[in-house]
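WARN  no MSA supplied for this record, continuing single-sequence
INFO  ligand: cytidine-5'-monophosphate
INFO  echoing inputs
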Amino acid sequence: MPSKILRDFVNLESKNVLLGVTGGIAAYKSPELVRLLRGEKASVQVVTTASAKQFVTNTTLQSVSGRPVRDNLWDSSAEAAMGHIELARWADLILIAPATANLLSDLATGRAGSLLTTLCLASEAPIVIAPAMNRVMWEHLATQENIKKLKKRGTIILGPDDGEQACGEIGPGRMREPEAILSDLKILGSPKTGAGPQKLEGKKVVITAGPTREPIDPVRYISNHSSGKQGYELATAAKDLGANVILISGPANLPAPIGVKLINVITAQEMCAEVEKQLHDCDVFIGVAAVADYRPSTVSPKKIKKDATRNKSEISLTLEENPDIIAYVAKSAHRPLTIGFAAETDSAEENALKKLKEKKLDAIIVNDVTANGVGFDSDENAATLIWTEGKTHYEKQSKASLSITIMRKIEKLFFSETALSATKQKMG
Ligand code: C5P
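INFO  complex generated
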């Protein structure tokens, strides 16, 4: 686990960045990444793997980084200058771009067969990875399982981007562009630095995430496509801004965010009951969950057999309304700052504004789930934050960076000195 924290990276000046370059075609972009990092006045030590040299030379990387490239655990003269353990301690950040499927697998299993993987194991620096590979390799269960393991350990994954690939395929697997990696780093790194005391420090933030499942019988249920990713990322972002975060999640196949209290639920009614328990001392409530609006009125105790419905071309399910959790929160006696989410398929802003008013929310974050590569189950999202006096749009980006941007905006809108004194004035 990294003990140094990434949030120190608002300013890369005089930070020690260990840049790992592995053997993907995107390695041709690594010299540009070195140039950008040095432009921020970071010291960059490049470490290449054997296959990286098939795509980019150590000479090029040495020229742009101003330091001899390290590529061999057994290079006695390099080790004499700075041993690998010393190098692991030197790093404030390990950035691996591009990271191949092979590298991800090595890291996930804790292998130390090369200088780069040894450094990753021996360092307490945060590890940020920009994967790059063929679409099918990226989507392969083995790779996805490795990614899940790495995320669980706190490794930060940037991208990959969607688009045309060197192999001729189209889909996810392109390395994030060097400029995007740099801006991701700044966004991910910025919450706790430079901005003075964090306004969410000590605040209790309750977030709902994921879908709910409404049982029909012991084997069937009604649910939706929500993955929970956006809610989990928001929970991490709120935690990084100093909040005590309670994440109440429907069934999502995601690791619990580090430092966040996770409460698992299945149905909307269970979610509502857990939210209720948290309200008495809650400062901010963010409803990201895609709560089922209706549930079957009766749940059959036994699996409904086809036999029982034979000769019927249709059967009916009677549904009854679930509690509207966020509307309930907004009306409660201990009303916290209440922020909703709206996943829309048409007239997104118009519908979101309607929900903001009807549910009496302080703000709502809306995203168009029909847009390409964003929304449900995607790692990226584009969204508009609407509050009673304004709105701001955020372009497509990783759900992690969008979450930090949104949480910072919420902090500024509702917890800055000006926001707090305006509220006081309003209340007389
Ligand atoms: O009306 P709609 O379901 O689209 O509203 C979306 C917002 O309301 C989200 O913030 C969602 O978490 C919340 N919601 C809720 N309880 C429901 C339905 C939606 O908290 N039963």
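Residues 399-415 form the longest helix (17 residues).
INFO  checksum written, moving to next record
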